[in-house]
Specification:
288 residues, alpha/beta, two-stranded antiparallel sheet, 11 helices, 40% helix, globular, binds S-adenosylmethionine
């Protein structure tokens, strides 16, 4: 069993990119009355304390959400993200951080559904414990599986409502995750061609991390968007996360424009050195 615990990283620059995009996607689905499903293949614990020993160890949130927190010049995509995080910190002190399952629960209406996979027994236990504090509505619309999200996702596609998104957010501790992500998206799209699939990936000094996005870009899908944000140059010792990316199959049409404004701003505000950079690409396949 791998040792990855998201609490170490909650609210860092990678979470900012991932969660700002996720919230935009959820808001977009919520604009139509028809119900939708959210499938989170790698859910984590759901809620994090930023003042816990773990989170404080690397103070990663300080270089992420902590730098956005009190800005009054946020682009709309990020203003909405900060608004969601603020909902967990009503006293104005940044001490709690919502993971993807909680951001989804905030967005879902009564008739929408959330399906969560978390394979790490301790994380799954904390996730279920956190959920038990939620109201009955949230419990009714959510199912937690303590099994492999790559495999489990397949049996849920397409969702009965034929509307929805899959978030694929592995820790990539196992380098097989890169290959499994590509396979999961391929198989997911076969079952649910109109669904949205959002993949997070790390920028690390590893061949697979730069190859995987290129493989995703070659998939035969209706449309995709690829955004990445590097906050510094790669470390000389080869360790650490210098940035991250999000690859989205069938993104909301509004997302590209939002990111055109948000990414240059994030590059400026989250930069740790002069090598901070971003990329943004979008493709539509008219034949599909
Ligand atoms: C990056 S964290 C998830 C963070 C979460 N999606 C969020 O945004 O708040 C990845 C999680 O996936 C879990 N995990 C690793 N391999 C898994 C698998 N094959 N299936 C389901 N969960 C897995 C890890 O235990 C870890 O908690």
């Amino acid at each position: 069993m791998f040792s990855y615990r998201h609490a170490f990283h909650a609210g860092n620059h990678a979470d900012v990119l991932k969660h700002a995009i996720l919230i935009h996607m959820l808001d977009y689905f919520g604009k139509k009355e028809a119900p939708y499903w959210v499938i989170d293949t790698h859910a984590g614990a759901g809620l994090y304390r930023l003042d816990s020993d773990w989170a404080a160890k690397n103070a990663e949130a300080a270089g992420g959400v902590g730098l956005l927190w009190q800005r009054d010049d946020l682009p709309p995509l990020l203003a909405r993200y900060v608004e969601c995080v603020l909902g967990y910190n009503a006293d104005g002190r940044l001490r709690h951080y919502p993971g993807s399952p909680w951001l989804a629960l905030d967005a879902l209406r009564g008739h929408d559904r959330l399906r969560l996979f978390e394979m790490h027994p301790t994380e799954a236990e904390v996730l279920v414990g956190n959920l038990e504090h939620m109201d009955r509505g949230a419990l009714r619309q959510t199912t937690v599986f303590d099994t492999d999200g790559f495999e489990g996702m397949k049996s849920l596609l397409p969702p009965p409502t034929r509307r929805g998104m899959v978030l694929i957010d592995p820790s990539y501790e196992d380098k097989q995750d890169y290959r499994r992500v590509v396979t999961a998206v391929k198989e997911g799209v076969k079952r649910f061609a109109t669904g949205s699939f959002a993949v997070w990936y790390p920028q690390v000094q590893r061949r697979e991390s730069s190859e995987m996005p290129r493989q995703l870009e070659k998939l035969d899908v209706k449309s995709w968007l690829h955004a990445s944000l590097s906050v510094r140059k790669p470390a000389t010792d080869g360790f650490g996360l210098h940035g991250s990316g999000m690859f989205i199959v069938n993104p909301p049409w509004t997302l590209h424009d939002e990111l055109k404004t948000a990414l240059p701003w994030l590059k400026k505000v989250l930069a740790q050195d002069e090598r901070a950079a971003f990329t943004l690409d979008y493709r539509e396949n008219a034949a599909k």
